[in-house]
Amino acid sequence: MEIKNTYIFGQETNKDYWTIEEIKALGIEAQKRREKLFSTPRDYIVSVLSKVGHKFSDRNSPFYKAAYSHLKETVSFSQPMIDETLKIIPSLLSKNEISKRMSLEMFFPYAVDVPMERHGYDGLIRALPKGVALHIGAGNVFLGILDSLLLGMVTKNVNIVKLSSSGSNFLNIFASALKEADEKKLIYDSFAILNWGGGKKELEKEIVSKSNIVFVWGGAEAVESYKKIAPLGVKVEVFGPKTSFGLLFESQLEKEGYEKISEKIVKDCAMWDQSACSNMHTIYLISSKSPERKAEKLLETLQKAFEDFQKKLPQGKLTPDEEAEITKYRQLAKVDKALKKADYRDSFPSSHWTVILEKDPAYRISPLNRVLFLKTAPDLDSVKKELLPYRGYLQTVGIGGNIIEKKAVLEKFFDLDLARFVSLGNMLEGKTGSPHDGVFPMMNMVNWVAIEGRPKNEDRLIEIVKLAKEKSKFYSNYYRKCPPVLDLKSFSKLPFLEKHHVLENTPPESEALLTSRARRGIYFASGGSTGQPKYVFYDQHEYERTCRMLAYAYEAAGLDENDVIANLFVAGNLWSSWLSVEKAIAYTKAISVPTGSNLPVENIVKYMKDFSVTSIIGLPSFLVKMAEYVDSIKEKLPISKIFYGGEYVGDEMVKFFERVFPGVSVKSAGYATADAGVIGFQCSKLSKGAHHLFAHSQYIEFVDPKTGLPVKDGEIGELVVTSLNKKHMPIIRYRVGDLGRWLMRPCSCGRKEPLFEILGRCDDRIHVGGAHLFVNDIQNAIGLVKELSFNFRVIIDKKAHKDILTIEIETKKDFDYSVQTKIKEKFYCALYDKCEDLRESVKMNWIDAPEIKLVSPNSIERIKRTGKIKRVVDKRISFSV
């Protein structure tokens, strides 16, 4: 492979001489290329870089071979050191590593592509590229300039790299690999790599004037030069020159031993022949007991550690000047030893390594190439005194000590402008997400801008539909005949999203509903009482937002810092409730007791008693079961708040809870679906099915279940929801299956969010024998009969031409069958009182009186995945609703 020294927006060439006119034209061309890169998706850029990384993971690939061969001739590192360095490239460029880094360094990586909402901020934020980023490379470690270019690429800047005259052309090999990996040809022509000797001020001045930001990696001379020539408005970010040191506490030396500690010190000193800013120059042994003896012993073990490191990763080629500099330091150490001021060990006659133990505690900057100074000090104050003159030039401290000692170093050295506090042995291994020289360089590659004020829901609906049509295979096909959505009127004409659409177009069957590949998020099963689960996906930001909304719902309903709350939802089976509730509670001020409902009820009640639980949250079916148990054992628990979700809670159930737990407040834990997220919340002034709408996150409509047309404000209709925040799996005009209506009044709590009321499932509205009744009415009737539990189901069948209605109800405990008739009579009275339409239909002989079956506790079949009962089984049709 022929390696050129210049790469100009996709064109590879050899060029050593440049004119001012050529540089000016190149700068103008760079500015022109901003628009194309700006419209390129971040995911594509990251995927291309990851492919480039793979090309360097195989030692037999042409790019790895070319890089290895070229670096052997152009850099001073030994061949094993070159090989060790090339191993880093696949990891540096991997999708996971870049994505993680963007999340940790930019906090809102998606803002590179689109404006984003930020929790607590009233508006949208967007990360815009600076424009043209100029990178001035240092000649020490070739990975540094690659990393700088990487930062510019993932933030969508057009990049110009000026290579060090003393460095290699490795970056040109990288450019060739990227050109091959860029199948869509979107980014290969967005950067240039230039090469000319230093000192050409007129060229440097011209290229800086055509840039928007300059990253300088190098020595003091280069840094000062570019600072001076940068015009107003061009920011110069400086990285270098820096020096780093180590601190070794005697406690850690005793704990780990001299040999292991010496290996860590040598690694921090000798890697890349001490040419990185984070390499150790001096190490201080902090000791108050026999420091001289310990230092001498450490000197001996350092000798062996350096020799072992030399065998594994030999020192690279040295220039005559470098060898002379090492010789000078050794001679000075020899003189100091004769004067009893120092001791030393080295690899004479070779220059492979040198360790100098000095009594003078003054900080020493190494001549590099594996020359280490060893000092002793009684305490941190003594060390700080020696370091103060170098404030502003110190980068990393490697600490051999426990966590208390590490924190003490941070507190003591807070004003030395150090960027990194790391464990000994890790000075060269920067953790993903750590700042560099006190800043996050990636953040400096963008301008953060805001669209102030919340966008109107109409605009957000238009945006979510546009995204879905462009990115989701399902919506692209489903909306193919629909005109563009430009306003609420055109939005209301979009076809509904039905449950079977979600079932058929989500994993594991399909990813057609998703707008991008699922990653960094969570799957949940959704399906409720129908029993057949659908699967929904939330990316991590959507899920965090959902949990924060749940937390708000709990606190709005009364949960506060005085509460200890038991999470009694069902855990496992991809069920969202328990996990989401637990995370939401963590965002509140309450204390959580995460029992779940999988344990025997007596165990759960014991935990509640042990931890003085004041609040419980869960599925009404289980809350009733738990309350019945508490009632049966006559236990007095300090439960003052009940939060429920997933099922309807009627007046009689509330009265039952109030009897078991006197003075209890019963509130909705929030109206939510796994598909769309949290839709509504209750405040202290609301009860039953009344909720405030999370109006900035959800858009709801009420439509006639049969015609699909909007009902008038305040009239009952089927709730249709559009999630304004779910962009990875958009939920647009989704038929939730619940009946509800707008409440046309303000709330006395003072909140401005509109009110709506949930009245039950559409499926819960039973049409039988001319009667129209709701499952909720049956539940309220059951609550009037103390022997009956709220666990029941309704079975509808036909006998000849007549509809038959059967109601199966579990009793609270096994009962004497001799009193069955009396219980049934009490229930009939309650049922006809609550269900007037049914009473009239029976009276008119349109339907026979419903058959009442009383069954033992827990005998009605539950859906295994959720623990819910299928409330209505309609045998008149071929499937259950």
Describe it:
The protein has 881 residues and is α/β, with parallel strands linked by helices. It contains 29 helices and 37 strands. α4 (62-74) crosses α5 (79-86) and α27 crosses α28 (820-834).
What attributes characterize this protein structure?
single chain, 881 residues, seven-stranded mixed sheet, 29 helices, 37 strands, 23% strand
Number of E strands: 37
Low-confidence stretches: 877-881
Biggest β-sheet strands, sense, barrel: 7 strands, mixed
- Describe the global form: elongated
What is the percentage of strand-forming residues? 15-25%
Biggest sheet strand order reads 2-1-7-6-5-8-9
Average of per-residue pLDDT values:
91
Briefly characterize the structure:
The chain is α/β, with parallel strands linked by helices. It has 29 helices and 37 strands. The strands form 8 sheets. A 7-stranded mixed β-sheet has the order 2-1-7-6-5-8-9, with helices on both faces. The protein has a 7-stranded mixed β-sheet with strand order 12-13-14-11-10-15-16, with helices on both faces.
SSE topology:
Blueprint lengths: L5 E3 L2 E3 L6 H13 L1 H5 L3 H14 L6 H13 L4 H8 L1 H5 L2 H12 L9 E2 L5 E7 L2 E5 L5 H13 L3 E5 L7 H12 L9 E4 L6 H9 L3 E5 L2 H10 L5 E5 L3 E7 H7 L1 H13 L9 E7 L4 H22 L7 H19 L3 E5 L7 E5 L12 E7 L2 H8 L6 E7 L2 H10 L7 E4 L22 E7 L4 H15 L1 H6 L9 H4 L7 H6 L16 E6 L7 E6 H17 L7 E4 L8 H11 L4 E3 L7 H10 L4 E4 L1 H13 L8 E4 L6 H10 L4 E4 L2 E3 L3 E5 L8 E4 L4 E6 L13 E7 L10 E10 L11 E7 L3 E4 L2 E4 H8 L5 E12 L2 E10 L8 H15 L1 H8 L7 E5 L16 E3 L7
